[in-house]
Amino acid sequence: MSKPTNAADEFRQVLAATARAVGRDDSFDVVYTTDRPGAAGQQVRVPQPLRALPATQAAELRGWCDAAALRKRHHDAGMHARGLPQSPEGREIYDAAEQARVEALGARDMAGAAINLNAMVDARCKLDPIARARSAPEVPLGTALSLLIRERLQSTATPDIALNGLALVREDIEGKAG
């Protein structure tokens, strides 16, 4: 690993090293993008950090990396595939529930990860249609279910920006889920 030339480079190196450690995978890599954050294979894509790197953005970036690394660490792809629903909506809900589960495991075991994940979930909700939903059909069920699972498994409040959207479907989901 080369020596960082500035604080931003140092942050990037530490972020990547932490993601590899949490995910228990030395080949896991962090890539910075202007596209939507996410993870695939051996990479996690996170938003390009601002030069000044405000503390809120640093926590969000750590949260994106923690979420991907925790999935790497706690997710069993074979088991997940065996239960994967056929419908696109069913797959979205199933995947969201699994991501909420692996994040809850990390938040339970690592207080710092819990803080980072909260920042990431706040940022994710700002980009999600749940923040703008005005009727139940506009609420993405995967997002709603992941927020409800998060509330139950982590005893963590839903971000304010998603409360109205979640309220549109909460009773129906909780009634069906028991």
Give a description of the structure.
- Strand 2 (38-40) and strand 3 form a beta hairpin.
- This protein has two domains: 7-53, no CATH class; 77-177.
- The protein is built from seven helices and three strands, in the order αβββαααααα.
- By secondary structure, the protein is mainly alpha-helical.
- The protein has helices spanning 7-23, 55-74, 77-83, 88-109, 111-127, 141-154, 160-177; strands spanning 29-33, 38-40, 43-47.
- The model has no long low-confidence stretch (mean pLDDT 91).
- Strands 1-3-2 form a three-stranded mixed β-sheet, covered by helices on one side.
How widely separated are the two ends?
50 Å
Main β sheet profile: 3 strands, mixed
Q: What class do helices, strands and sheet pairing give?
A: mainly alpha
Q: How large is the count of helical segments? A: 7
**Run of helices and strands:** HEEEHHHHHH
The strands making up the biggest β-sheet line up spatially as 1-3-2
Radius of gyration: 17 Å
Which of globular, elongated, flat, extended, rod-shaped describes the shape? globular
Portion in beta strands: 5-15%
What number is the mean pLDDT?
A: 91
Summary, kept brief:
With 178 residues, the chain is mainly α. The protein has 7 helices and 3 strands; from the N terminus they run H-E-E-E-H-H-H-H-H-H. The chain has 2 domains: 7-53, no CATH class; 77-177.
Task: Give a quick set of tags describing it.
178 residues; mainly alpha; 2 domains; 3 strands; 7% strand
